[in-house]
Amino acid sequence: MTDLQALATEAGAWRRQLHQMPEILFDLEQTADFVAGKLEAFGCQTHRGIARTGIVAVIEGNGRPGPTILLRADMDALPMEERTNLPHASKHPGRMHACGHDGHTAMLLAAARQLAAERTHSGRVVLCFQPAEEGGHGARVMIEEGLLDRFGVDEVYAMHNQPGLPVGAFASRPGPMLAAGDRFVITLRGRGGHAAAPHLANDPVVAQAQLVAALQSIAARRTDPMDQAVVSVTWVAAGSAEALNVIPAEVRLGGTIRALKPETRRQNERHLRDIVAGVAATFGMEAELDWRPGYPVTVNDPAATEAALAAARAIGTGAVDGDCVPEMGSEDFSYMLEKRPGALMWLGNGDSAALHNPGYDFDDRAILPGLRYWLELVRQRLPG
Prior knowledge:
By secondary structure, the protein is α/β, with parallel strands linked by helices. The protein has helices spanning about 5-20, 30-40, 100-120, 140-145, 145-150, 205-215, 215-220, 260-285, 300-315, 335-340, 365-380, and strands spanning about 45-50, 55-60, 70-75, 125-130, 155-160, 170, 175-180, 180-190, 195, 230-240, 245, 250-260, 285-295, 300, 320, 340-350. An eight-stranded mixed beta sheet has the order 1-2-4-3-5-16-6-15, with helices on both faces. It has a four-stranded antiparallel beta sheet with strand order 10-12-8-13. It has a two-stranded antiparallel ribbon with strand order 7-14. α3 crosses α11 and α9 packs across α11.
């Protein structure tokens, strides 16, 4: 075994320990204690309490001047039940590391240990262990609490595992890589009544059926065919199965709307508001729209992306795709990319279950190539 292989093996044990104790959003006290304890033992300047449970570690280099680059790992899990039956399965019912944040954290901890031991780089490395990526806007909160300015960050980089991509392979692209993901809840209020006399009521169920169909025109008829947008109505609630002869007075429905360009995102919201108002007016209903902005478009800086791809190619662990197809999922690393140049990189997780699937597990074989990528990126961006 090489030293890095031994370190990756040890990081695999850390990863499985983290997998057993998943925590949600900002409530990461146990995870934060684990991470901070490791960083302090490695000799890193460790700062706790940013966005409640976020942790920042600073590793000064060899004293030569250079930029400050930030490497980010997310730490939070998902509120779902694990169905893997693995020896290291979650010990917290209703919580699961179903997106590989345990692996991301373990890889960055391993990089911290190696970088702190060597300190051959110029400039400074800032390691960000972030809470609340899974819907909590944790990156934005860390930025608001001074993450980038306080530590003088010049560039930002993140890595996320990708099921279906071979272990050891990498993929990224300049420009939009992941979509903005906004959410909405719409309430239509009509007039309830007896199902046998619909003319005496004002049926919001019929109106919502028309609304669901009309919302699809946002992507199909109001968005440039060369652009990308998707609208998904994922929830509808009205009436009661115990009273099927009653026309309800109110219907609620909700879902997500996604885009790969900031301007398309703004356009989608305008179209959604117009359609809701139009359908309500057509059917003589009251309508209420609860618009819930999600994460921005994840836009990789071209120069930073090329630097990230160069590091991935240099370690030679597998194929490197420099023009991968953008995806319609979203990622709150986008907030950091709005403030500083940087890039998100996919790391292959092999033939695993999909992300956010109860049968998912991070593949520990990905730790070594992920570790080597981080170290090579630092070497290239901060040459000694």
